[in-house]
Amino acid sequence: MFQLAYFQMVGAGKARNQDALFDGTAVRQVRLHKTRVSEADDAVRLAVADGVSSSPAAHLASRFWLDAFVREGDAEGRFLRRLHGRFCDTLAEEYVGSSSTFASAVVESDGLCRICNVGDSRVYHISAEGRWRQVSHDHTVLADLIEQGEARADTEYADMYYALAHCLIADDEETHFKIFTDSFALQRGEAVLVCSDGLHDALPHERLEALWNASPSLLDKLEALRRAVKRVPYHDDCSAAVCLRQG
Q1: Which of 33, 27, 34 has the alpha carbon at shortest distance from 48?
Q2: How far is CA 145 from CA 2, 118, 142, in A?
Q3: CB 3.0–4.6 Å: which of 166, 209, 232, 239 could bond 21 by disulfide?
């Protein structure tokens, strides 16, 4: 048995949400959904896509990939390469360069969890004790430099280093994006959470854990996160969905 919850919130001062979220039942792309909770007995699929705000039609890019995930998506993200041409055909004529990140988690009934991501939307594995561990990989300039040994993870760098190195771009020449995949066993009492960068950019790791552990129920945990993001000045669009394997 799994308990599911999600929320979605437009960024401060923005008229349109450029995130898209799949909560296991439907694709959401709205200004505000306060936390909602449901239950599932069978396999669970969750995903987020964050339209890159500097691109021409960010909201259409994120929506394309979430609709595609619902129809044809697989746990390892093979559909992202398979459908990239269709993505370009759909958007590139009028909105060439429209871009989005993507992250998903597919949890089988036995707890096997398979994740994938492109860009800086994240997936977290949350232990029964409330410890958060990022299991996705940020495809940023800095992350690439760290991987190559040319930068340090414990050092602060200029904002330009946090720019995306890989994402899904509506351009026939932009086919060399990286897809990160991983899998792990989701034990009873543990959770997997997918989110756009509106969550982890607004709240540092220690704050995420503290808010999660201060609330008793899954609804309260996610709603505490949403309210904390809302209090951050100039916060970005924020979407998050979580699957808790009940004990």
Answers
A1: 27
A2: 38, 17, 5
A3: 239
CATH topology of domain 2-245: Phosphatase 2c; domain 1 (3.60.40)
Residue 6, strand partner residues: 36, 241
Cβ neighbour number for residue 131 with a 10 Å cutoff: 13
In the block, tokens 């939307």 appear at: 121
> What pairs with residue 24 in β-bridges?
none
Q: Residues in the chain with pLDDT < 50?
A: none
Instruction: Give me the sign of the Cα torsion angle 33, 169, 12, 228.
Output: positive
Structure tokens at 109: 């009934």
Decide: 20 and 48 in contact? Cβ < 8 Å. Answer: yes
Distance CA 20, CA 145 (A): 29
Model pTM above 0.85: yes
- CA angle, 147 as apex, 144 and 150 as ends, to 5°? 85
C-alpha dihedral over 84, 85, 89, 95, to 10 degrees?
40
SS3 175: coil
Angle at 168 between CA 162 and CA 170, to 5 degrees: 125
CB 245 within 8 A of CB 191: yes
Residue found by looking up tokens 């360069």 in the block: 97
Q: Are the C-beta atoms of 244 and 8 separated by less than 8 Å? A: no
How many helices (H) does the chain have, and how many strands (E)? 7, 14
Minimal CA–CA distance to 28: which of 57, 60, 72, 63? 63
Measured from the Cβ of residue 46, the count of other Cβ atoms closer than 10 Å reads 26
